[in-house]
Amino acid sequence: MSIPIYQVDAFTRQHFSGNPAAVCLLPAEKQASWMQSVAAEMNLSETAFVHPHNGGYKLRWFTPVAEVNLCGHATLASAHVLWESGKVDAEQPIEFYTNSGILTTQNVDGNIEMNFPSESAEKCVAPKALTAALGISPVEVLKCQSDYLVVLENETAVKNLQPDFYRLKEIVVRGVIVTAYSNNDEDDFVSRFFAPRVGIDEDPVTGSVHCVLAPYWADKLDKQDLIARQLSMRGGVLELSLQKDRVLIRGEACTVLKGELYAE
């Protein structure tokens, strides 16, 4: 039996931009080792595995080398595939059962809106290994559950950053978020995300890190609704709304290819 598999560009309306994710529609859960092998074969920053569960869908995410507990762009891609393929009516919200709890997605004015948990970050002393790997002196460094959050002076510093990925890989965190105020009136802040320890040197557009970035910048800018831009080579834009302990993350997606997976 073949298994449908899609590749979707997330947080964009244009093909070959945003963040590509593979979405594998399973009839039932498969072994983690099998899912990890498929993710390694796809060799994208994330491959999502989706199957029916409790009136919604079970969702797990794998990088080419590891399972992760939360991923935004592959969640957005999974919702897009379920609606586009007709598995779920386009007007019906989707509940995803994940390692980070139940995540809800819905169509809102042509965008896919994801309801994610917000996360705070605490100021910390910057580890010497971190500043050495980034090669720059930060304005401040914070630590959340999975990542370091590094604030730089301006957008140009974020854009021009050339980290040492070998050194970053030695730091025992999922990844490093780098951020600054935006230089233009269209966005509130910019960011980049590096996660070589889980097989992703730089992620093009990262929904999950905005669970941390949204409350941080909401406090700095004294506003609950924000526009974020990720400054990777592919780039992407996210609309954010902070609502108490939740972050609404909105974006678009487009299917690049559909195929059949024969390896079982």
Q: Mind explaining what this structure looks like?
A:
The chain is of the alpha+beta class. It has two domains: 3-117 and 250-261, Diaminopimelate Epimerase, Chain A, domain 1 (Roll); 122-243, Diaminopimelate Epimerase, Chain A, domain 1 (Roll). It is built from six helices and 18 strands. The protein has helices spanning 32-42, 73-84, 128-134, 155-160, 165-169, 210-221, and strands at residues 3-10, 19-25, 46-53, 56-62, 67-68, 94-98, 101-108, 111-117, 122-123, 140-143, 147-151, 175-181, 189-195, 200-203, 225-230, 236-243, 246-251, 253-261. The chain has an 18-stranded mixed sheet that branches. A hairpin with a 3-residue loop joins strand 10 and strand 11 (147-151). The longest helix has 12 residues, at 73-84. The protein is globular, with a radius of gyration of 18 Å. The mean pLDDT is 96.
